[in-house]
Give the backbone structure.
Amino acid sequence: MATQRVIHEDTPPNPVNPDICSSFQAQLGAQVTFGGVIGSQTIDKVGNIWPFNLPYPMTVPNVATIRILNNGTLSVGQTYPYSVSQACIEGIQRGVTIIT
């Protein structure tokens, strides 16, 4: 007998734990915990749309819960850039790509 995957609208998005020096993918509403943070760093806006629930610039690590916005301003398949203050090999600009 074949099985079928059922997705319920009330299923919470998977949390993500990206390294601060890496771009990443996340679902709308996903909780984000940045890893690899040395000391206290900031994440700031690049471009027109800020993809996180906390105001920019954000300080990480952060005691507040960081989430990807789920208010209709972000689109699946799009990448939203942001910058990090931590010195990373690839420079300061990163992005989060919204997935389903």
User: Anything to note?
Assistant: The chain has one domain: 24-99. Residues 24-99 form one domain. The chain has a mean pLDDT of 92.
